[in-house]
Design goal:
Strand content: 5-15%
Helix content: 40-55%
Radius of gyration: 31 Å
Strand order of the largest sheet: 2-1-14-11-10-3-9-8-4-7-5-6
Mean pLDDT: 85
Structural class: alpha/beta
Low-confidence stretches: 437-513
Number of strands: 14
Shape: globular
Number of helices: 19
Distance between the termini: 79 Å
Largest sheet: 12 strands, mixed
Length: about 525
Amino acid sequence: MADDGTILIGKSWKPESLLLKLANRHGLITGATGTGKTVTLQVLAEGFARHGVPVFAADIKGDLSGVAAPGDSKPPFLKRAEEIGVTYQPDQFTTVFWDVFGEQGHPVRATISEMGPLLLSRLLDLNDTQEGVLNIAFRIADEQKLLLLDLKDLRAILSFIAENAQSLTTKYGNVTAQSVGTIQRSLLVLENQKGDLFFGEPALDINDLMRTDRDGRGVINMLAADKLMANPRLYATFLLWLLSELFEQLPEVGDLDKPKLVFFFDEAHLLFNGAPKALLTAVEQVVRLIRSKGVGVYFVTQNPLDIPDTVLAQLGNRVQHALRAFTPRDQKAVKAAAETFRQNPKFKTEDAITQLAVGEALTSTLEGKGTPTMVERTLIAPPMAQVGPVSPQVRAQCMRDSGFAGKYDTMIDRESAYEELMKRKGLNADGSPVEASTGGGGIMDTIGGWLGDAVGNGERPKTGPGSRGGRLPPSMTEKIITSAARSAASTMGRQIGSAILRGVLGSMMGGRK
């Protein structure tokens, strides 16, 4: 495990390693269920962390969380280490747990504005017409300086559009109540699936994913995704959003000696299934260009056919576990997987893919100037951390030690589009009517309210809610104030009365300087 700028993947007739300086050229880990993909992912994650590279990975089954605890020297791992020629050294890694639902990790959130209309349309499964309405909603929010932070903000702006559809149509295009209603129903479904927990503040700061610990090792960020997978569209949209945020926010750095971050996208087929062309184009662009930001992306999936050819062509480092060839589609997948490797004359790649044992894989990585190595049949190295889920106690301790509890665990609901649009209707956030006399303005609003009542009702102000109807003594100041207010607006209500009072008293106080 010498620090020679490589990560040991395993051993064929020679050690098979991944060059750190070419790790940002992305990669692919494929194979049927139960063939060892998760263990390979853990081996790579440990290797990156050991070399000071932060890692972000989704933990689909909970098994990957074991990186937070030391390995337990099981006989199969000791035997594999001996076969490969390395010393088994139990190890553990600084791990931060994240969870969209805030149950098994720190909450991870994004705002509606950050997500944008394209990804939201994908998440809500909208058609082109409905996506157009969503784009209009974002445009209006921008023009009217309305913050879109959470789902209630988006609901409010959609309701505003529906109520003003006739006047908006001439400027933005046709907006129908049916389209708005469909979007609102999709938002309701998302809320019922607890998707509303993802949208809001404080939003995730991507810099918090790119940390090293006190020993200079990369921190492994683990997204608890076992419950998130109940809504696979939310899972895929979240990871794509995160990838897009990395792409947009990180500066260009070119080719580094090692990546700034490595991003593992497990169950990658969920990203591409049924995705519209615009989204696939966006994914292809991000994958192609994000390597210059120092980020490596590794897709993990069962079948290489799950990845579009335009994306597959960007993945230079390959680990192929066994595939089964029981159906015509399986046979096609085996052939496609074999064709993506630089062939080795020592064996037939297509046959080898179906014969691989658990913990064995075909590997091909980039070398030299970025050319792929010849495919080799490889025994995968054993992980040095625990294989399998950590205990709830270890997870809780990791959360206490992360330093993020005070930053993310409490949701913030600041004034945004919902509150502003409610104000325009004369309503408080809870739907109750706004009353100027109880608007929180202190003594000035209270006196202004009295004056507004007096002006509006043709009566002199009373002493207050507890008064029995007694009159205030007619001081000179009161006569001036009342006269000025009545001459300005004899029938105005409370808000005008408060404004006049502030103006008059302001002048009087200024004259005493």
